[in-house]
Amino acid sequence: MEYKVKDISLAPKGKLMVEWAEQHMPVLRHIRQKYSEEKPLKGIKIAACMHVTKETAVLMLTLRDAGAEVALSASNPLSTQDPVAAYLATEGISIFAWRGMKEDEYFEAIARAASIGPNITMDDGGDLTVMIHKLAHGITEGIDYRIGKEFLSSDIAKGIYGGTEETTTGVIRLKALEKDGKLLYPVIAVNDSKTKYMFDNRYGTGQSSLDGILRATNILFAGKNVVVAGYGWVGRGIAWRAKGLGARVLVVEPDPIKALEAYYDGFYVSDMSTAAELGDVFITATGNRDVIRTEHFLKMKSGAILANAGHFNVEISVADLEKIAVSKRKINENVEEYLLPNNRRLYLIAEGRLVNLAAAEGHPSEVMDLSFGNQALAVKTLLKKHVSLRPKVYRLPGSIDRKIAYIKLKALGVKIEKLTPEQKKYLESWSS
Q1: Digit-coded pLDDT (tens) for 40-93
Q2: How does pLDDT run across 254-295, given as a tens digit for each residue?
Q3: CATH number, domain 3-196+363-412, options 3.40.50.1480, 1.25.40.10, 3.40.720.10, 3.30.450.20
Q4: Where in the cell is it found (predicted)?
Q5: CA distances from 126 to 123, 155, 195, 211, 407 (A)
Q6: Is the dihedral of CA 300, 304, 309, 315 positive or negative?
Q7: What was the pLDDT predicted at 1?
Q8: Distance in angstroms (rounded) separating the CA atoms of residues 58 and 28
């Protein structure tokens, strides 16, 4: 077991953090207990590239207790909780993660995790999956290929039964691989499960993104004009939570159906050019690049705050901001001030990286319980069915969604209605 973390002496603190998270994750506790007895993953190697948080730790320990050999790398240079990483290193997890990784260190960590020769990959954003596929297809562009080639062979994909993907961004990349005919093994898009995106993306990101902004700035949301770019499940959650805090919310959305939905949900809908002049706080959640760029920065009020809730730090064009700024200075650990030629000052949070993880602790444990319950069951599904699956992007069966929901409801003490045999028959019949 290898590891590279910031400070192994932080492990006792990490242990307490993980225990706190597990107390609030009844679905994963249930699965962990069951898997610990059955050992369904015995002899299986899992390489994971995920945000190293206390919730992720509960998932990794669940997989370990199920019999798997697990190696973990960070899926964002700023999202690692160092005490948690240290604790996992003492618990038999090969982990390569620390907060503040440089770009080459980040990709080296991914390659080191993959060097165990995985049967299953678990990804959060697609960086692990893309590295493996670049090596396999001989696509030599990018630092991920250069560093991956130092640690991994080009035939690494041959031993992989399948993979899982946690995020919207990652699923987009996987579907592009599939469309190009380059996807080499089946991948389950955990993000597309209802008990993931309807809860994690909406309630989890909605709350934790605002939490990150508040921790970094301590501003008052009430009365602010908050611009939310993107009205997918993440954007919906952010918009509704900002509205709940008393903000006036403007939604920027290119999809006409989503834009219409935002309008009828009671939000002002506009393009970014118009919104740039009105916003006090800007939060991107699109999965696309250059959503806010030079022409928008120059229109913004002095004091405007910029935050990103998308997976990669490409939605706010930091390169444009760096290029046009007269000067910049660090206000605190997670806020940088940029002085523009028009003498206005803009404030960028966490380098434009995932604000909820870089400036806060990520999603609440209660909601990650659902997402990681999906992850654990997806691994078992892949082991059971991988021989019959083609290299495609799959969704988990609806029966697993319902199973996770039932476990969660039982833990919450919630009773739901049961259909009578007559009602079931009525719903299954075409005749009245």
Answers
A1: 999 999 999 999 999 999 999 999 999 999 999 999 999 999 999 999 999 999
A2: 999 999 999 999 999 999 999 999 999 999 999 999 999 999
A3: 3.40.50.1480
A4: Cytoplasm
A5: 6, 19, 21, 25, 29
A6: positive
A7: 73
A8: 8
How many whole angstroms separate alpha carbon 396 and alpha carbon 337? 44
E strand or H helix at 209: helix 205-217
368 vs 306: CA distance, rounded Å: 26
Known binding positions for substrate: 53, 124, 166, 196, 200
Q: Which CATH number fits domain 205-358: 3.30.300.20, 1.20.120.530, 3.40.1790.10, 3.40.50.720?
A: 3.40.50.720
Write out the E strands in 253-326.
Answer: 268-270, 281-284, 305-308
Contact 41, 35 (CB under 8 A): yes
Q: Show the tokens assigned to 108.
A: 């080296």
* DSSP H helix total and E strand total for the chain: 19, 16
Which residues participate in the annotated binding site? 53, 124, 166-169, 196, 200-201, 230-237, 253, 288, 309-311, 356, 363
Give dist(CA 170, CA 167) in Å, integer: 5
CA dist 55 to 14, 169, 279, Å? 11, 20, 34
Beta-sheet strand order (sheet of 268-270): 268-270, 248-252, 225-229, 281-284, 305-308, 345-349, 335-339, 327-332
Q: Would you say the CATH fold of 205-358 matches that of 3-196+363-412?
A: yes
Overall pTM > 0.90: yes
- Rounded to whole angstroms, the Cα distance separating 179 from 44 reads 29
Which string of b and e fits 47-71 if b means at least 16 CB within 10 Å?
A: bbbbbbbbbbbbbbbbbbbbebbbb
Q: Could you list the residues known to form a binding site for NAD(+), using ranges.
A: 167-169, 201, 230-237, 253, 288, 309-311, 356, 363
User: How far apart are the C-alpha atoms of 200 and 86, rounded to whole Å?
Assistant: 26
Domain locations in the chain as residue ranges: 3-196+363-412, 205-358
How far is Cα 285 from Cα 258, in angstroms, rounded to an integer? Answer: 13
Per DSSP, 292 falls in state B
